[in-house]
Amino acid sequence: MKKTYFILMLFVCFFYCSSSQKLTNVYKSPKLNTIQRIAVAPFEDAPGILAKGSGKVVADVMVTQLLTLNKYQVIERSQLQKVLSEHNLSQSGVIDAVTAQEVGKILGVDAVIIGSVTEYQMKKGHVPLYVTNIQTRGYTVGASARIVSVESGEILFSSTAVDNGSSYNEASEKVCARITSQF
């Protein structure tokens, strides 16, 4: 009985956590290979009151994913925030391509990653098992990211990804890994 229950739960978790994975709209310029120093700006939060702060979470995870690539020199996000504050470039912390170009020049980076969180939600469900229902929970995160050249303002890379996980952090890690794997 316990073995059957365990196998069923593994199947449910695997099925629920692996659905809705997608990577779409990938654009990659040949000039992307010239980038050595990069900064990550705060992402725009997903819509909804429960998603407040989701842009900062995904941007933080993006920094970690970039570091694991061991391909770029990544500038600490606190330095970027300091420049934004000192130069009054963004009240919300979220920046556009023009502001990214300005901030990037001040920081001495080749490019800045900007983006938005498109989805940030928890999904509840249940699975009938014998005479009872088992509650399930999964988290879905979606993000859109662009790499903007500091020199020209040109978008060198653009991608959108959506994934699920057993927590917001796990789903964010999967999304950022999907996006950065295309660099």
SSE inventory with pairings:
Blueprint: H1 2-18, E1 22-28, E2 37-40, H2 54-69, E3 73-74, H3 77-86, H4 97-107, E4 111-129, E5 132-149, E6 155-165, H5 168-180
Helix pairs in contact: 2-5, 3-4
List keywords for this structure.
single chain, 183 residues, alpha/beta, Rossmann fold, six-stranded mixed beta sheet, elongated
Short description:
This protein is of the alpha/beta class and about 180 residues long.
Describe this structure in words.
This protein is α/β, with parallel strands linked by helices and 183 residues long. It has a single domain, classed as 3-Layer(aba) Sandwich (Rossmann fold). The chain is 37% helix and 33% strand. The chain has five helices and six strands, in the order H-E-E-H-E-H-H-E-E-E-H. A six-stranded mixed β-sheet has the order 1-6-5-4-2-3. Helix 2 packs across helix 5 and helix 3 packs across helix 4. About 9% of the residues have low confidence.
Number of helices: 5
- N-to-C order of helices and strands: HEEHEHHEEEH
Q: Which CATH first-tier class would you pick?
A: Alpha Beta
Report helical residue fraction. Answer: 25-40%
Shape: elongated
Number of domains: 1
N→C terminal distance = 47 Å
